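Hello,

I think I submitted the 2-phosphoglycolic acid job twice by accident. Can you confirm which output corresponds to this input? Input:
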Amino acid sequence: MSKRVPIVAGNWKMNKTATQARAFAIQLRERIRNVTDREIIVFPPFTALPVVADELRNSNIRFGGQNMHWERSGAFTGEVSADFLSDLGCTHVLVGHSERRRDFGEDDDTCSRKVRTALDAGLIPLFCCGETLEQRNAEQTSDVVKHQLSIGLDSVKDEEFIIAYEPVWAIGTGKTATSTQAEEVHRWIREWLGKRFGPAVAETVRILYGGSVKPNNINELMAEPDIDGALVGGAGLDLASFEPIVRFK
Ligand code: PGA
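Support: Only one job matched these inputs. Its output is below.
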């Protein structure tokens, strides 16, 4: 395991009502209260954030938003601002998840604006990047990921952020990248970080892997030197699978 403190994050996507989320948060809090050597973050739907905040505020589990608008406030019907999130006690926000890019027209530019706004509001952005299957087959993975990072993180100065590498073809498909495939991209990302921010930042930024992470593949992934944690979708909805992932060896 690297010297970076690992992170296990659960992205609940559009799952769990506020009632279900409260029950889950209470159980999760009780089951993993003794886990102190890693960071645990959950990303509930917006409507569940207030109740999750009530249950997790004084726990070892942090929570954040799955998305946010790039402006701080204004005439943006239906949108949620970074300040709404931080006011509830959120510490993190996902930016640029591939489902947002694919289904809601988010591009590198909007991601970049969101990263800046999140940092300005005191949130830690968890910036998602990753290639499609076509791009991987065309051997464009490295170019695609570096392009997403260079625009998405273009405004970042000396501020904390987290990266999640999530190959689009591995999300919700049951097809995990092998640990060797994932490590290769994580290494490219760390090299890119070194060029863009310098060696000290490259050594400290946590790079999570996401895409069909399960109890039976987490240990192998975490054994890789540049994989610092996991962003978990489906397996994060159920304690029977999330707890063993949180407790990876
Ligand atoms: P999955 O989702 O674990 O269900 O593949 C990962 C993600 O989208 O963050």
